[in-house]
């Protein structure tokens, strides 16, 4: 009984930590100005446009991941197609892979991005972009976007 309680609170603490690392918080959406990403709904899509974070994810992906994972998440001979991976991978597992890196078959290696601020800071955006690709919501090209939404300092 005691033990169960403990493992439950440990689980909740882990979930809370995962969310706070990524800057996620729970909320529902009304339009793109109210949209707050969550692991369940990481991107916003309406009238052929994505939220600014998802668009930023597209840019970050192409700067840091494209070289191995291929154009628009489609994979290469060196690294897997992330748009397939994200059909089964949780947000937590995604973050974990990027933070710790991977050693794959044929000695292919993915470095740890733990010290790359341009990746870690925007990891939720990269996830959002790949999830939108994985869900088939956006195509290969640069997606159209809604304007960046200014956040109050208090929201931070
Ligand atoms: C130097 C090449 C390289 C770069 C750059 C790279 N990766 Fe990888 N990544 C790999 C390899 C190789 C694997 C497969 C390892 C394996 O087989 O388990 C991998 C695996 C992954 C996985 C696990 C996929 C799965 O199905 O288990 C994720 C998630 C991932 N990478 C995300 C990223 C993201 C996001 C970026 C950009 C920030 C990135 N990678 C940049 C080489 C790379």
From TrEMBL:
SUPFAM superfamilies: Cytochrome c (SSF46626). Keywords: Heme, Iron, Metal-binding, Signal. The lineage of its organism: Bacteria, Pseudomonadati, Pseudomonadota, Gammaproteobacteria, Chromatiales. InterPro entries: Cyt_c-like_dom (IPR009056), Cyt_c-like_dom_sf (IPR036909). Residues 1-26 form the signal peptide. Residues 43-134 form the Cytochrome c domain. One of its GO terms (molecular function) is electron transfer activity. It comes from Candidatus Thiodiazotropha endolucinida. This is Cytochrome c-553I. Transmembrane segments: none annotated.
